[in-house]
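It is worth pausing here to work through a concrete case rather than discussing structure prediction in the abstract. The textbook approach is simple: state the sequence, then state the predicted structure, then interpret. We follow exactly that order.
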Amino acid sequence: MRMRPTLSWTPSEDLLPGTTSLAPVADALRAGGVLVLSGAGISTESGIPDYRGAGGSLSRHTPMTYQEFTADAQAQRRYWARSHLGWRTFGRARPNPGHRAVAAFGRHGLLTGVITQNVDGLHQSAGSERVVELHGSLERVVCLSCGALSPRRELARRLEEANAGFAPTAAGINPDGDADLTDEQVGDFRVLPCTVCGGVLKPDVVFFGEAVPPRRVEHCRELVDQAVSLLVLGSSLTVMSGLRFVRQAAQAGKPVLIVNRDPTRGDRHAVTRVALPLGAALTTVAGRLGIPVDDQVAGRDRVEGQGGEAAP
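Step two, the predicted structure:
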């Protein structure tokens, strides 16, 4: 039986109430030294749903776990069929005003870096640098046997050739790039092995139930230590992978500011939570700071298979 990961929490009554005042966020950015921690909520305006907001994908979809993927060949077939279809849509997503504002803050020297829980590469596409992909990237594939890394675009081409005519209609797409398909739609989708050793391929992302690589976690902890303040954008902070950095910053006396419409598990550690849509909020802050946010993508064009900065 497929078990649902524990990915929810119940807000308590003593959590910080949301505000619509952007002054603390503007003040923190004006002072510089800000480390951004972003979650799925920053990509919703690019057409990628989040997990837990209104209409979030967890209401209809149970993410694949690492344990299930590695133990069951049929689970691998199901995952790759759905991910292959989702990749066609995922790869067309473009940065939205929130991503572009973050990139603009970085260009003006206000940020020390960006830690993103997202696997969509949109921060880099908007022009952000020094991005640590905490949960990896869908634009890379890793072999579970030999560890070989390869571009997702290469596997996508091989899967297209091996599954000619595969074009079911998905009920939706999820933040991890996994499309919603029935077992009947998955059918006899052909899964392909590693071209180096014949091993099992997996997207280079951290599945639910899988640990973030320790060196990557340590690198993020160092970034928190170096920052003046932590700005959380679009994350409910439900899972520990992101919440631990909020706790670390708060314990060190560094201001934590959150922009997220709904309460988060990190609110008790924050000096403010701004309950506004991210794109509009960050664009407004940029305007107050006199920083232009281009209508078009300020950074490089999105290239299928292009990954972000390698994290330790």
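Step three, interpretation. The beta strands are 34-38, 111-116, 131-133, 136-143, 149-151, 201-205, 229-233, 256-259, 272-274. The first strand starts at residue 34 and ends at 38.
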